[in-house]
Amino acid sequence: MMRPEEQIDVLVDVAVEEGVAVGAPWHVILFNDEIHAFDEVVLQVMKATGCTMRRAAEVTLEAHHSGQAGVHSGDIGDCVRVQAVLSEIGLQTELRG
Questions:
Q1: β-strand 68-74 against 26-31: which pairing, if any?
Q2: Dihedral through CA 39, CA 56, CA 53, CA 47, nearest 10?
Q3: Which of 36, 75, 76, 77 has its CA 20 to 30 A from that of 25?
Q4: Contacts of 64 by beta carbon, 8 Å cutoff, 6+ apart
Q5: Which tens digit of pLDDT belongs to each residue from 3-38?
Q6: How many Cβ atoms are within 10 Å of 4's Cβ, its own excluded?
């Protein structure tokens, strides 16, 4: 199994090779899971994005109720960094550009 940072490298390589625009806007999507405690996800979203606890709780609630939520938008490098931090504890995410 690939480490999260290896998976992210592959995503970036594929985007560049396929001619996908690597500039903004890119989006990090967080998916709901039944493994992590709500508070654990909130703290990791705060760590990844630097947002307030209130905003992190809103994102986490949206993912819980809707199945997914937008966590961050920006250029590819920033989104890859946010995705890597979320992946540190095994949260499921996706980059969309």
A1: antiparallel
A2: 80
A3: 36
A4: 32, 38
A5: 555 555 545 544 444 555 566 699 999 999 989 999
A6: 17
| Residue 94 confidence (pLDDT) | 98
Verify cis geometry, omega within 30 degrees of 0, for the bond prior to 25. yes
CATH value at residue 39: 3.30.1390.10
Domain count, the chain: 1
Domain range for residue 81?
4-96
Site of tokens 């760590």? 47
DSSP string, the chain: ---HHHHHHHHHHHHHHTT---SS-EEEEEEP-SSS-HHHHHHHHHHHH---HHHHHHHHHHHHHHSEEEEEEE-HHHHHHHHHHHHTTT--EEEE-
